[in-house]
Specification:
Layout: H1 2-15, H2 28-42, H3 45-61, H4 74-86, H5 95-105, H6 122-135, H7 144-157, H8 166-173, H9 180-202
Helix pairs in contact: 1-9, 2-3, 2-4, 2-9, 4-5, 4-6, 8-9
Length: 203
């Protein structure tokens, strides 16, 4: 597995400069996540610096035109930032970027979202918001009215699973078309970490 991930890392390094997508599934947010995980996996500080540069490029790339969705837009970017902060890959005031994501996401009337998918629909928005609340950071843009409307729409559309732990996302990524750094990079590393945690907990 190590050699495969090394090959993916080298290929991603070459291709990352031409990637204008800032999203999670196929863009710079996913690459950022990959390099943060791989820097820890390989104990490589240079890759950590690269991941931080990519995160900066993502934050600078957010605009009013950025999609709100999980796969290619704000919900996925916000979720990745939450994951990195929760697992101590990054520190500082992450609410600067999260509040920006929240502000743009809440401009869309959630009551009119008809797609229920994770990538381009209600499930992805709900998963991000659930992760936002779970971490316990301030979220002034996600007010009571928005949350009530989101919950009501989820109930109406039959969306009742907001779980988006890294393990759950890893399973999802193995079922959909996504960038190579997910299936051959992030997913195996997450699987290995999950196995190691299970091994330790069983002892």
């Amino acid at each position: 597995m190590k050699n495969i991930i090394e090959d993916i890392a080298k290929r991603c390094l070459i291709e990352s400069g031409d990637n204008t997508d800032i999203g999670l599934i196929k863009g710079k947010t996913g690459l950022c996540l990959f390099y943060f995980l791989y820097s820890k996996y390989s104990n490589n500080a240079v890759l950590e610096d690269l991941a931080e540069e990519l995160l900066y490029e993502v934050t600078e790339g957010i605009s009013n035109e950025t999609p709100i969705w999980f796969g290619d837009g704000l919900a996925g970017i916000g979720w990745a930032v939450l994951y990195l902060y929760q697992h101590h890959y990054i520190d500082g005031d992450v609410n600067i970027i999260l509040n920006c994501c929240d502000r743009l996401i809440t401009q869309r009337d959630v009551r009119r979202i008809g797609n229920t998918s994770l990538e381009k629909g209600l499930r992805g928005i709900a998963a991000y918001v659930a992760a936002r609340f779970e971490l316990g950071l301030e979220h002034p843009m996600l007010d009571e009215q928005y949350i009530n409307e989101l919950l009501a729409r989820c109930k109406e559309m039959g969306v009742n699973n907001y779980d988006l732990s890294m393990e759950a996302l890893w399973k999802y990524m193995n079922q959909v078309e996504c960038a190579a750094f997910w299936k051959a990079g992030i997913c195996p590393m997450i699987e290995k970490q999950h196995e190691e945690k299970s091994f330790v907990s069983d002892r």
